[in-house]
Amino acid sequence: MKIEVRLTDVSKVIRKKKCCRKTNSKRKHPPASPVAVSFPLQRLYMSCIDVFKGVGTVPSPTDVQKLCRILDGMRAEDVGLSRNLQFFKTSSISGVTPKVACTTIYQSEKFSLCIFFLPANAVIPLHNHPGMTVFNKLLLGKVHIKAYDLVTSNNQDDSASPSQRKLAALKADSVFTAPCDTSVLYPTSGGNIHAFTAITPCAILDVMGPPYSKKDGRDCSYYRDIPYKALPYEEAVTNDDRERERYCWLEEIEIPKGSEMEGIKYMGPRVIEMS
Ligand SMILES: [Fe+2]
């Protein structure tokens, strides 16, 4: 896998630098660790241990701020990446469906730290995060993010619409360019459903608490969005035309063809696990 090879190159660079330092010194040092420890990543991990208390708990606003501050300050290099890697310089290849890759830095029952790699034009389709708080930090690249929250409306009559269609309100529909601030999805705000479309090759660091777990009922569902006015049988949520554009129907679908992610080995700095 190309990305793995390139991440391997990063750790080789780290190893090589350490060897050079050793050669120049007369003092004896223990053998260099193959992968350096990253202080910002370690700080993120330690804070996640404090913040994520397990299923059913949502981080307090103070804790969300704390994690956002750490993530806002993180750079691609903190997880062993660099904009000089060939992956981030490659434009899209016509006729080839770009595949998203994912690597896990750390995962426990309470939280996970992952990086998603999106080649140019790659898409992570609309998907949800049931019961999870999710922090997204764009490390490199330019990406379009669309996010919805489900709406609980008195006007919504479940008997009148197919049950798999849910009314949702648009919360984000913008292009983000690294470096930029962290975005957060909350489990209590109505669904936390989002999609990513890479404009250039991207790396996105995700902190999820708790992580997906099929056996615990936190599986990932996929959706397509249908314009609100396309379903005439529904009563109006609002009569304001501009306001209506914020709304759509989300229909649950099977994972779109070609959207399966490729898991790759994490080759960047490791976290030192605390018991
Ligand atoms: Fe997501």
Write up this protein:
With 275 residues, the chain is an alpha+beta fold. It has one domain (2-20, 35-263): Sandwich (Jelly Rolls), CATH 2.60.120.10. Helix content is 20%, strand content 29%. It has 5 helices and 12 strands. It has helices at 2-24, 39-51, 61-72, 86-89, 241-244, and strands at residues 101-107, 112-118, 123-127, 133-140, 142-150, 165-177, 183-185, 193-198, 202-209, 222-227, 247-253, 262-263. The strands form 2 sheets. A 6-stranded mixed beta sheet has the order 7-4-9-2-1-12, with helices on one face. It has a 6-stranded antiparallel beta sheet with strand order 3-8-5-6-11-10, with no helix packed on it. A hairpin with a 4-residue loop joins strand 1 and strand 2. Helix 2 (39-51) packs antiparallel against helix 3 (61-72). It is globular. Mean pLDDT is 81; it is low at 1-34 and 154-160. The site of fe (ii) ion (FE2) has 4 residues, from loops.
